[in-house]
Design brief:
By secondary structure, the chain is an alpha/beta fold. Helix content is about 45%, strand content about 15%.
Length: about 200
């Protein structure tokens, strides 16, 4: 019931503000205790962390897709894409960091979606989908890199969310942890739309 209400609130915000179709995304880890943070444990892995992925609209700054996982950042990414598809969010272009440059991730999106990613070290095993990305990068390198580096906007969103609401999950029950993090994402959207930047 609560998830339905939160999902509907997200949908109403997107309908009112509109989405551009141009997105960026990134994942982050949330600690379960105050003593663990990026300075003391920069790898953000293990049972002491929970993972969140935000799909952010570049023009409005709204979080239009949310994924939560107790296992990995990649699982949180997949859940965010499922949520965005369920809400009918059109993905015209998407910029992601190297962690999401695998063949499986690229195959999740059709040819109508312009992907802006830079590959990991070994490009020889990436596959055919990379041909159009490389072609786009070679035709206008400046525009490609400008759009690729808009992915930093998702890191800005995570920074704003964590500064405003904290980087620690206070809930202990696993079902409440995901709900709390989704609520924080919606609160960010409300602050973005109604209050503006800090």
């Amino acid at each position: 019931m609560v998830w339905t209400v939160l999902r509907n609130l997200l949908l109403l915000l997107m309908m009112e503000e509109g989405v551009s179709g141009d997105y960026t995304g990134d994942g982050s880890g949330y600690s379960l205790s105050v003593s663990r943070h990026y300075r003391s444990a920069p790898s953000k892995s293990g049972v002491k962390y929970r993972y969140v992925f935000h799909l952010v609209d570049i023009r409005s700054g709204l979080i239009v897709g949310f994924g939560y996982s107790r296992v990995s950042e990649m699982e949180a990414f997949r859940r965010a894409m499922v949520m965005a598809a369920g809400l009918g969010v059109p993905v015209d272009s998407l910029s992601l960091d190297r962690y999401y440059s695998s063949r499986k991730v690229l195959e999740m999106f059709g040819a109508e979606t312009a992907m802006y990613v830079i590959p990991k070290k070994n490009i020889s095993r990436i596959g055919f989908r990379w041909a159009e990305i490389i072609e786009r990068a070679l035709s206008d390198p400046s525009a490609f890199l400008e759009r690729y580096f808009e992915r930093c906007f998702s890191e800005v969103v995570f920074s704003a969310v964590k500064r405003r609401f904290g980087w620690v999950i206070r809930q202990r029950r696993p079902d409440r942890q995901g709900g709390a993090l989704f609520t924080i994402s919606l609160l960010h959207n409300l602050f973005t739309v109604r209050v503006g930047p800090l």
